[in-house]
Amino acid sequence: MTNEQQIGWTRDQMAERAAQDIPNGAYVNLGIGIPEKVVRYVPDGREVIYHTENGLLGMGDAPEEGSEDPELINAGKKLVTAIPGAAYFHHADSFAMIRGNHIDICVLGAMQVAENGDLANWSTGNPDAIPAVGGAMDLVAGVKIINVITQHVTKKGYPKLVSACTFPLTGVAVVSRIYTDLAVIDVTGEGFKIVELAPGVDFDYVQERTGCTLIAA
Amino acid sequence: MINKQISSIKQAVANIHDGATVMIGGFGEAGSPIELIHALIDQGAKDLTVINNNTGSGHVGLAALIENRRVAKMICSFPKSANSLVFPDLYTKGEIELELVPQGTLAERIRAGGAGVPAFYTATSVGTPLAEGKEVRNIKGRDYVLEYGLTADFALIKCLKADRYGNLIYNKTARNFAPIMAMAADTTIVQTKEFVGLGDLDAETVVTPGIFVDKVIIVADPLLESKLVNAGEIYP
User: In the prediction, which pLDDT does B82 show?
Assistant: First the structure.
């Protein structure tokens, strides 16, 4: 492992930090990848209802061995359970919850976030790739608060927080807050503003790895 | 007497014609009416336009329908997923058409089609490549994209219980697109695990009222896509 990887928060720590901003009573939709980990870290004493857009409100943990039902899955097509008090519904109702502003918070992954809150997370725009969008565009257009969890830079070291997205957009000016391995950052009218730095990370370190000018906390 | 039960699965799909638009229920394997899809492959209809969230897995069910070159066009939101090999291959070769629709827009287009609503405005996809060429209208200060309702000649769906009027209930997240597809198709063909007597389904909890259903076939022990894919099955 290089020093680069040892600095900042781990994937679990990023999820834990994001979970702290989910209030008691919230209806929450979690994207695939690191956002799925958020469910493990909601602070004790808070009751949160998870929505999965394929048709379940009150999604629980993965099932115990022997009690799996292949027709009880989440949006990532992983086996899940339903909590007591859960409800099933069809797709049009599920997306009415999203499009109709009933879901409070969505935590998504990102390929790029622009300083005005534009999000790109569904396509690289490569003409040879098979385009696939799923529910991402519906979520960013309809959920009240869109937060993003992402590594600060790509595997090749390019900034994912940029002045303008070069990948095709998922939504325009939709992101509120970003949790990276290096910092918590808010999208403000003036640009990206640092809310919190990961332990051992300073402002200049984050700025060097960001594609536009950051505002200090 | 009204009785929508059909005695053979072959008969259930017999009328599906070349060039038909067919909605197929299911999100991944949950709710996928595999036996009906396989009966459609056996039946032979081609040049189909198929509406489903995905494009199937492995070489069974929807993937097999595509692999057997019966599908000219897919309308879906997420055509690539784990074990999804057939569609990406044909798409890359330019041998199948794709209309990519955001998942919620797809659901609402189907719901609208079934409800007699020809089109609607949605904020989903505004400012993205999927809104290109579409009418945009500003309503109360926000931009919305015009999307058209979707209807179909046939819907193939799977449920848990049905009665002879065609009232249906589903199993957990296998419900997904089935209730709205039943509304949006001229002829809705259902495979049910159980067939129950009139009155056995609580009228307060019927999910799909029988008016949206035309044909019901009992498939008491339906195949599971994941098991077939893991076993390397190829249909036919």
Answer: 75
